[in-house]
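Colleagues,

Please find the record for the two-part complex below.
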Amino acid sequence: GENVGLHLPTLSVQEGDNSIINCAYSNSASDYFIWYKQESGKGPQFIIDIRSNMDKRQGQRVTVLLNKTVKHLSLQIAATQPGDSAVYFCAEKIGYSSASKIIFGSGTRLSIRP
Amino acid sequence: SAVISQKPSRDICQRGTSLTIQCQVDSQVTMMFWYRQQPGQSLTLIATANQGSEATYESGFVIDKFPISRPNLTFSTLTVSNMSPEDSSIYLCSVDGVGRGLDEQYFGPGTRLTVT
């Protein structure tokens, strides 16, 4: 492996259970939030995003919840599979233009128990 | 989505030398971003590169240490100059959304640099 996430907090989940990964963000002016998945030896891969005017968005097996009051973001993965093992990062962005930079939060390593 | 390639994928370099990392995208993009990911850490933005203008650097990063080129809309390079062991990291290129709206940002596979 590439030592990605070696020192990050770890969430251990039984295969088939639901996973909930949490993230606290810092900037109340952020307009847009993204969850990325990073597998060992690879770059981050987009999973799902949510705009600040929403509080919930669902994708395939994933749901993102946004609580702007407490500046909290969560990623829920339904029926966790071995392929979900990775490091997950939340990220935030101010503005929607292509020049708006994405700032990454701390990550969480998701480990799946068979 | 955009297909992004980086060269080299990894390298081991001696301190005091410089390494130039290339990033190639399969479509034209406005903005390209360079990130650093130190071992076991999250991603930190180094700079934003717009074609035809100088790169914009984040706090803590300077052009002399990390010169960037952006000669066209599909290519960029990042040079890590006068390397020290503290520069050992994964360096990632990223581009803004391509043709599918402006929200998504795509990442290359990264270049793993070890400085001895």
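Chain A touches chain B through 29 residues (CB under 8 Å).

Comments are welcome before we finalize the supplementary table.
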